[in-house]
Amino acid sequence: MEVRYRNTRDENEVVASSEAILKGLADGGGLYVPTAIPALDKSLRELSGMTYQETAYEVMKLFLTDFSEEELKRCIACAYDEKFDTETIAPLVYAEGAYYLELFHGPTIAFKDMALSILPHLMITAAKKNQLDKEIVILTATSGDTGKAALAGFAGVKGTRIIVFYPKDGVSPIQERQMVTQAGDNTLVVGIRGNFDQAQSGVKQMFSDPAFQEEIGRQGFCFSSANSINIGRLVPQIVYYVYAYGRLLAEGKIAEGDKVNMVVPTGNFGNILAAYYAKRMGLPIGRLICASNENKVLYDFFRTGVYDKNREFVLTTSPSMDILISSNLERLIYTIAGEDAAVNKKLMRELAETGRYEITPEMQKELRDFYGGFTDQTQTKEVICALYEKTGYVIDPHTAVAAGVYEQYRRKSGDGNVSVIVSTASPFKFAGSVMDAIEPEHKRCDDFALTERLHDLAGVEVPRAVEEIKNAPIRHQTVCEVEQMADVVRGFLR
Ligand SMILES: *Cc1c(COP(=O)(O)O)cnc(C)c1O
Known about the structure:
- The structure is a single chain.
- The chain is an alpha/beta fold.
- It has a domain of 246 residues: Rossmann fold (3-Layer(aba) Sandwich), CATH 3.40.50.1100.
- It is built from 22 helices and 16 strands.
- The strands form four sheets. Strands 4-5-15-10-11-14 form a six-stranded mixed sheet, sandwiched between helices.
- Strand 6, helix 7 and strand 7 form a beta-alpha-beta unit.
- It is globular.
- It starts with a strand and ends with a helix.
- The structure holds pyridoxal-5'-phosphate (PLP).
């Protein structure tokens, strides 16, 4: 079955998967969604015997149907290799009644590596396929983790340049250091005086400005995106849900067909949307548990059917989830609107104009597989501390937000199904917040010094990614206002 990709705001725009990956964002600000969600064509039992790479092929071949077997397998082999510090790529760890799916074993120690280590390969392959005669410029807005993972993926890749915008005061010290030490002539890192939503809107604006596209087109460039609005990010993220289910089955923790809940710490709604797609492929997922921090727009949305970003933006200890405009929710809205681009477009226009929209009761009914919850910063700290004291296992604040919501869900629902908590970052990436939780009396010093102490307490090696940047030279110092983003891009491409 051929799967193509349709614009959520214009049903007449339908493109092949390779084109959708190259373009990133559809025309008029829409996103690409698959014209159909393919069903898994291997049994769960068969899948449970597969490696991560084999599972990746089984999932991705169903979505990226204009890639050949050879092309896909090459991309997968290049992505999931020794860059990851474990052969299993995504290990499952049991602690206190749930399984933690550790997605932080890649080069930048956050789950963004799962997709961003393969996206550059998919994109270069797609460029060849479509005889693209322009250099690809990746424009990226980051809440902290996407930026470094995208830089690591695209640095030095011929035929591409990458520009990353991050909120100057909205990321952790280690996240910032990871980005500003990035080597590679084709990279540019820019701090903006604003928050993530402003960075993301600025990038989206450049994408949907035909005059700007034409201007850079004349210079031999075209834009693409490494954000989770790119379908080339989303599809590789479906893989680890299938893989996690396979591991549980292989290890006898569940029987074939048993439902498993997925608990996902959520910001831009990319990760949990991938879980939703996995469920629609036939993977027996029970509840999709959407965990927010104090920026709890999604919690309110699932409860009331009203999406309202008109509220105070809170800087929390889980900065990668400090987001009020969850871009990928648009893909879900489109689906529950009966795949009606006109309805979706109207709601997205309301969001842009008033910061708010409301879905119909019929649409709300389609959300029954989701459960929304949130964990505030005090609870997040308590969750990290309690788990550590009981088991010695240390989790990062994002994962702790999910663990906190899972705890509330389990108490409220009495649901006894096996649950997987998606662990999105290494605790070393947020050493300061983690140490505040597990050793509140620790001496205040910079995050790098704290990683040593964390190593002693957690009994886990300090990841290579932290060691590498400790003494690396700062290579990027550009800071700009939100309004200057386009000019910074022009300057870099000149
Ligand atoms: C990006 C990120 C998230 C949020 O993921 P979305 O796909 O944006 O919902 C959660 N945790 C960490 C550590 C992240 O980097």
